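Notes from hallway chat w/ T.B., transcribed later so I don't forget. T.B. wanted the structure written out for a chain they're using in a teaching module, and asked if we could keep both sequence and structure tokens in one place. Agreed to drop them here.
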Amino acid sequence: MRVAIASDHGGINIREEIKGLMKELNIEFEDFGCECETSVDYPDYAQPVATKVADGEFDRGILICGTGIGMSIAANKVKGIRCALVHDMFSAKATREHNDSNVLAMGERVIGPGLAREIAKIWLTTEFEGGRHENRVNKIHQLEK
């Protein structure tokens, strides 16, 4: 699995935590920034991650900002992206099993690093169930046309 990861200035700490987790899990990843704590615009970081996932260069993406809301809205504008804003472990599992989400968004100002790490681990290790959920995901694809 290859994962693209990025954050704005509001998500740097959790981004570093998740990168450490991916190293432990032997997951290949590429960091798309940001590298500063001064205010930046989250769409500038969501767009390259979402585009690279949609184009198949990466299997999944992880985006972090203050709330996760801006990143998830921006990522979901890219055709082929199913970005889920997640702040609990149940939703992390459900969005992979049922929605085949390919991008995860989290908010550093909403959750702490420990919970973010657990959410990311569940999301990264849970497979899509397919079956009845496949038809629903296909209907999402139809909405993009």
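Follow-up for T.B.: The CA atoms of residues 90 and 105 lie 15 Å apart. Might be a good example for the class.
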